[in-house]
Amino acid sequence: MNMKAKNNNFNLTTKNLTLCALLTALALGLSYLENLFPLAIAIPIPGVKLGLANIITLFALYALNPAQAFMILISRCTLGALFAGNLNALIYSIFGGVSALFVMMILSRTDLFSIYGVSTGGAAAHNCGQIAAAVFTLGNSAPLYYLPVLLFISLFTGALTGLVSALLFRALQNTGVPEFARTETRNQNHLNPPPTDGQEASHGKISD
Question: Degrees (nearest 5) of the Cα angle 47, 124, 82?
Answer without folding.
Answer: 45
